[in-house]
Structure formats: structure tokens, C-alpha cells
Amino acid sequence: MKINDEQINIDDLISQKYMHKEIKKGLFLSEYQIEVLKKYNIDIDKISTINDLIFQIDEILEDGDCEDLEVVANELSEFYYYANTNK
Q1: pLDDT tens digit at each of 87 positions of the chain
Q2: Closest by alpha carbon to 50, among 18, 81, 19, 71?
Q3: Do 68 and 55 form a contact (C-beta atoms < 8 A)?
Q4: Residue 49 in contact with residue 26, Cβ under 8 Å?
Q5: How far apart, in whole angstroms, are the C-alpha atoms of residue 9 and residue 2?
Q6: By Cβ atoms counted within 10 A, which residue in 12, 41, 68, 76 is the most buried?
């Protein structure tokens, strides 16, 4: 696919890493983020808010070096910052 004469990879546009869906009211996650959270035994069914999720992630990050979980934490922070910023 070409947009403005630039080659665009459709897979990037619909990649599970970037597509967020509402898991619970006000809680949006991508499939990639869900996979990483499950890897670290974070049960998203027991999470009620994004703050609860960030708290659980922070607890795990304090105990060790978890690069993929740190990436997810940064993604979530950015996503929710921009989602809650009035522009």
C-alpha cells in the first residue's frame, strides 16, 4: 500500500502491539501488552483501574530487570497520558 508515495506496511498499522482495545471500562490494552502481563502473572481480570495495574507492574520492576515489562509500563504511561490530555 502506498500513501503519499511512501510504502506503508499494513501489518504495522494493524499490529497487535499498537492496537488497543477496552478490556474493562476505562482500561485499554493491546494484545502484546496482555501477553507480557500474563508472562509476569499479572491477572488483568483482577485489575479494576489503570492505577492498580501500574502499581502491580511497579512492584515487579522493583524486584528485578524485566525489560519487556518496563516497555509495557512506558507504553501504558504514554497512552494514558495522551488519552487524558485535552488537546
Answers
A1: 444 555 656 555 555 566 778 888 888 898 899 999 999 999 999 988 888 999 999 999 998 888 999 999 998 888 887 777 755
A2: 81
A3: no
A4: yes
A5: 9
A6: 76
